[in-house]
Task: inverse folding
């Protein structure tokens, strides 16, 4: 198989095409490619966000795509997730403009290319694992850059650097996320959830609310907490 040289937004690729083109492993949602010195070259991020057919026991991750934002659950199907290994490699993008290639599964080991991903923030949440047990997970929020719509693999570093530089001029909070991620105990910050079971129930209910209704719900919540002139945009 001749490795492909570029990815086109919206086009479909097999698992093997992604694997050989980006020189990453065959399995996993987070697939880093490193050089001889173990420095990160790029990452393939694969999600099943649009796959509603799988049972929760098969796919316990609560990924979702809303507009140009992918909310992505870190790797680890059972037990509390840790910000180590492949999961921790994602936060390296705060400091270095590493290309993250985003793909969404459409079935039968086939994926649609979303574009290059920009890590906006990461945080902890309570979710249930494949056995239905509550556990702490790490969530990564990515902006999906669908332009340029053709990404030559050999020039992905330059493209990612330009995209991230321009984007972070408009969103300086990403720099704050980078600084927080570098604190020694950042992965051990206690989660502010006093009743995880209740939180998981509420989270499930909120996930069923239509996006526009959710925006109005937040408007009402903020108004009742003393904010004035709150508008849904």
Result:
């Amino acid at each position: 198989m001749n490795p492909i040289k570029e990815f086109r937004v919206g086009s479909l690729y097999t698992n093997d095409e992604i694997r050989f083109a980006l020189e990453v492993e065959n399995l996993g949602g987070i697939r880093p490619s490193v050089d001889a010195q173990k420095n990160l070259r790029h990452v393939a991020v694969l999600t099943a966000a649009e796959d509603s057919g799988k049972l929760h026991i098969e796919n316990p991750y609560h990924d979702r795509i809303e507009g140009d934002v992918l909310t992505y659950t870190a790797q680890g199907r059972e037990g509390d997730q840790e910000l180590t290994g492949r999961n921790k490699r994602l936060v390296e993008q705060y400091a270095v403009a590493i290309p993250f290639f985003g793909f969404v599964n459409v079935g039968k080991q086939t994926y649609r290319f979303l574009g290059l991903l920009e890590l906006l923030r990461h945080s902890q949440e309570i979710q249930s694992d494949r056995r239905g047990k509550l556990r702490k997970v790490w969530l990564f929020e990515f902006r999906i850059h669908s332009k340029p719509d053709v990404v030559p693999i050999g020039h992905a570093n330059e493209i990612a650097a330009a995209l991230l530089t321009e984007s972070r001029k408009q969103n300086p909070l990403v720099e704050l996320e980078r600084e927080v991620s570098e604190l020694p105990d950042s992965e051990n910050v206690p989660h502010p959830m006093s009743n995880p079971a209740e939180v998981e129930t509420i989270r499930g209910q909120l996930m069923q609310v239509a996006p526009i209704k959710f925006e109005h719900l937040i408007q009402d919540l903020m108004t009742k907490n003393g904010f004035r002139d709150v508008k849904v945009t």
